[in-house]
Give the backbone structure.
Amino acid sequence: MLLENNNGDRSSTCHHPIGNSSGSDDGSPERYTPAMESAGEGLLVPPLNFSMVDYGVFRSGFPDIANFPFLQTLGLRSIMSEPPLVNIPEEKIRESLRVVLDEKNRPLLIHCKRGKHRTGSLVGCLRKLQKWCLTSIFDEYQRYAAEKARVSDLRFMELFDISGFKQPPTFSSHSKN
Amino acid sequence: MLLENNNGDRSSTCHHPIGNSSGSDDGSPERYTPAMESAGEGLLVPPLNFSMVDYGVFRSGFPDIANFPFLQTLGLRSIMSEPPLVNIPEEKIRESLRVVLDEKNRPLLIHCKRGKHRTGSLVGCLRKLQKWCLTSIFDEYQRYAAEKARVSDLRFMELFDISGFKQPPTFSSHSKN
């Protein structure tokens, strides 16, 4: 897991600016300028496989420069890049989940290369914590992975042990209303 | 469009309790009891094609009784049922969008039968208001409609005229942080 965090309270995990190695030190998205908007008529281009997962939690594939104006609209505090491993160590997913569950990291974007396997598995583990049945977890995973779905990911989510985590707040307790 | 709203300020649209014609008058989800949880071990069952669209806006297919404990976790104020018409009149979509954009109706669930065509078209029109490029709007639509995607829906979204609407707040302005 690589984590960029704009809070200043950087943890032991690595940090990186979004797809721009010459970015500002604090990783602030303010460095992107309107000239980077590549879509016509001020249109916004979300990253591949972008979606909202929960209040202040988003998922996607790897953002490129065309996505930066859109990402600015999310007001992100943190970006979590899951490393390109076919078999992600369970401890890494546990560490990532703790970051996702910590509300001070939100709004937060979880991404990997395609937003399918690693991101999908992490979101699936979050759904287990949220007490979703496995059928619904797999259905959501497959909506993004489609024909690239991996049995190894499904098994990982099924066997993931949530006993060390407190149950996170429900959707409604996040609601402002 | 049918709209159930727990605010008490019912508008001129129709209202209905969720799949339960003997429900309480105010449409409160509190009438559902734990005995309705059909999944084992207290697991929650989101409706078919459930997802979060924006802060306090959710989408799905038609909820059944097994979904009620999950829906309770959303703290919904409103439920919008799109009518089963293949060709939805544009004015109905405009009226629905105005309901979605009114924050006092949130948290709100938009649903139709499968959460694919009518719901997908309405969400697509919302994305137009949010200035998403058409490619990303179609990609999101197809993630839910899959092999049932309809060219008529894509054309509807492309041609939908957003000029009468104010641009809605961005994701970040909804964020609590």
